[in-house]
Design a protein that fits this description.
This protein is α/β, with parallel strands linked by helices. The protein is about 35% helix and about 15% strand. The protein is built from eleven helices and nine strands. Helix 1 packs parallel to helix 2.
């Protein structure tokens, strides 16, 4: 089996509609694909309807935007707070803790995006109306959509360039986003009957490097696994990351983090072992009710 458990659709910041994802996964040679849009489950049903015809099993998921407080002495840039993404799988989406987070994030993302665009508009030919052309009408606007507007205006070459420069966390146009503590998000997912996985924890290039000391508390909160094989984890660090996960009793995951044309990530470029997938399914809310 070939299993990719981290992808995005136009319900958040991907470029493919949720209903397109299963067929694209089939073409890529996948047997299983998870839809894990940012802080939303809006694409689940459309993807689920398309999955049987594509001959691909769909895992329903989410990627929750969170943060961890860390010791600056253990962080390569001396940060005391790190943005952390928690993948949640097969949970009850109507659980109050999950539902309230999704609602709050939708409002917070909109407010944040408006402030970023207002700051950019002082120096660049960009406005709120223009940015709205680059997202699905049903999805909240985020930095990737602003990046697309900057690309279309000829200000940057592509999304990656936008995030390295104008939209970086060190930019004067940057606006911090609301996020819960990572350990809290892990507990929400577990309480909603799902399982939680730490996404790309050594993503130095995007400033999301999580020190090793932070892994234990997340495991204690109920974390199930760690995304080891991901293009944003430097190859030289993956073996040590796998050893750390094993030492803590956490399962090792590999995923693409596919975003369509929004990023160079390819479906199936990293995959998860079938045995880990079977463990992921066991006893979860979605597998019990379907």
């Amino acid at each position: 089996m070939k299993i990719d458990l981290h992808t995005h659709s136009s319900a958040s910041d991907g470029t493919d509609a949720p209903e397109q994802l299963p067929q694209l996964a089939h073409v890529a040679g996948l047997d299983v694909v998870a839809l894990t849009d940012h802080d939303t489950v809006a694409g689940w049903e459309l993807a689920a309807r398309a999955a049987p015809a594509a001959g691909v099993a769909l895992v329903r998921g989410i990627e929750i935007t969170t943060h961890c407080l860390v010791d600056p002495a253990e962080h390569p840039a001396g940060k005391n707070q790190v943005s952390v993404h928690i993948l949640g799988y097969l949970f009850d989406p109507s659980h109050p803790l999950i539902a309230s987070h999704i609602a709050r994030m939708a409002s917070a993302r909109d407010d944040r995006a408006r402030e970023i665009v207002a700051r950019l508009a002082v120096d660049y030919p960009i406005n709120w109306e223009t940015v709205q052309n680059f997202r699905d009408p049903a999805a909240p606007i985020g930095r990737p959509h602003i990046a697309d507007a900057l690309v279309a205006a000829g200000i940057v070459a592509d999304r990656s360039a936008a995030f390295r420069t104008i939209l970086s966390t060190n930019s004067p146009y940057y606006v911090p986003n609301h996020s819960p503590l990572a350990a809290d998000a892990v507990q929400w997912i577990v309480q909603a009957g799902g399982k939680a996985v730490l996404a790309h924890p050594k993503a130095r290039a995007r400033g999301n490097y999580l020190p090793d000391a932070a892994f234990g508390p997340l495991r204690d909160a109920g974390l199930f696994g760690v995304e080891v094989n991901h293009r944003d984890n430097p190859p030289a660090e993956r073996a040590a990351l796998a050893r750390l996960a094993a030492a803590l009793g956490l399962r090792e995951f590999g995923s693409s983090d596919y975003h369509g044309t929004g990023k160079p990530n390819r479906l199936g470029e990293n995959v998860t072992h079938p045995e880990v997938y079977e463990e992921l399914l066991a006893g979860t809310f979605m597998c019990l009710v379907e």
